[in-house]
Amino acid sequence: MPIHTVATASEWESLASATFVPVRIESTLHAFRGSMEHHGDGESGVTVVRSGSGRVSRTADLIETSPADLALFSVQVRGTSRVEQDGRQGRVGPGSGVLYLTRAAYQLSFPEPAEVAIMQVPSERLGLRRDVLDSLVARPLPLRRDPALRTMTRVLRSLFSPRPVLSDVAQALDVATEILSSALRPDRRRSGRRRNHAELYAEFERIIHERLDDPRLDVAGLAEQEGVSIRTVHNVFAERGTTPAAHLREARLDRGRHLLATTRLPLSDIAVLCGSEDASVFTRSFRREWGLTPSEYRRQNQVRPGSHPSE
């Protein structure tokens, strides 16, 4: 999707109102800059927002003329923000998320340049009572403490990368919505909700990403961590034309390739970060995958200081 860039607060207001719901924007910056990149269709989508300092307001008169009932979940990537709704204020820092609803007035304040990833979905799709949703707005949620929310965030943000976890945008949004709904439920530990294979794949992929340096991680470990059978793990990956072991191996070697190109870490350290306690074993696996030894690959692909890798 194209990245939409603006150079004034009034242009930013028009872009934000068209992407989400009508809002008003104020900024004291003389040289305001902002950009949005969006995936989705209709009322469901995810948008990466980068902007300078400012304030976003959805007021009663705007709600009266545009009474959309959407749930917005904002993940703070960089900078900080403050969300005010329903008499509550929440300060949101990097690595936290926050819910707010378009059916009620709210104010978002950004005291510094910031980047957020915002998922929007019709409130009814979360399957939660109105009073439950109202009780959750403007309450920052630390994503690091919640594996499900980390999975949701990875699914959404990966849509803006060359290798999305789920390449079908509609499926990715469905999975993210199901995960958010479960994470927000007061009785989530007792719900026993049955997850589909797309959601399980997203969970497995997140676990693999977080434990690439763990040589003990295997199919049994994936099954145990998510409370499913080993057969289910194999079936989930088979639907994507691979096996759990092959996916784990490819992910580790891809990390090795990235570290070789972007760092000066010794090969022994890179091997450990890729789940191998033996650099010679890592070297053999790397050569089978890429046709070059790690040293040869590094000589051909080392990124110079100040430049940025394309991967």
TrEMBL record:
Stored InterPro entries: AraC-bd_2, AraC_XylS_family_regulators, Homeodomain-like_sf, HTH_AraC, Tscrpt_reg_AraC-type_HTH
SUPFAM superfamilies in alphabetical order: Homeodomain-like
Protein name (record): AraC family transcriptional regulator
Thylakoid is among the record's keywords: no
Domain of life: Bacteria
Domain HTH araC/xylS-type: start-end pairs: 202-300
Pfam families to which the protein is assigned, alphabetical: AraC_binding_2, HTH_18
A Gene Ontology molecular function term of the record: DNA-binding transcription factor activity
Keywords: DNA-binding, Transcription, Transcription regulation
Entry keyword Chaperone: no
